[in-house]
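anyone seen this seq b4? input:
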Amino acid sequence: MASNWGFSTRAIHDEQHSCKKTGAISHPIVPAVAYAFDSAEEAAAVVDGTAEGRYYGRFGNETTDILEAKLADLELAEASLAVSSGMAAISIALMGYLNAGDHVVVTKDVYGGTHKFLSIKSI
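predicted toks r here
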């Protein structure tokens, strides 16, 4: 990152990724949720973590990686995390700060999904 660049310039130019496959200057959106392999052995190695690669979209993809890098750069942060929904973001934020037995005070008009999440009784 060029430290003398303003926010708008960083938003456009920092963490800019080109697509090696297409030559595009900005990386295209990758909507894939599943990935192909040349062999069952290669797939097994990626799934068990002994080889690099992607195998399922819920565990991330190139588009998400690029978004996270861009957001971290814009916020001058070490890293960022993109999730698939607002409820996922709320759950992760709460679970990161709360411990068993903690209490949370929310307004009466809090999002219904958040209220339900906070009202779950332990099994």
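The longest helix spans residues 62-74. Helices lie at 7-13, 40-47, 62-74, 86-97, 112-119. kinda curious what u guys think
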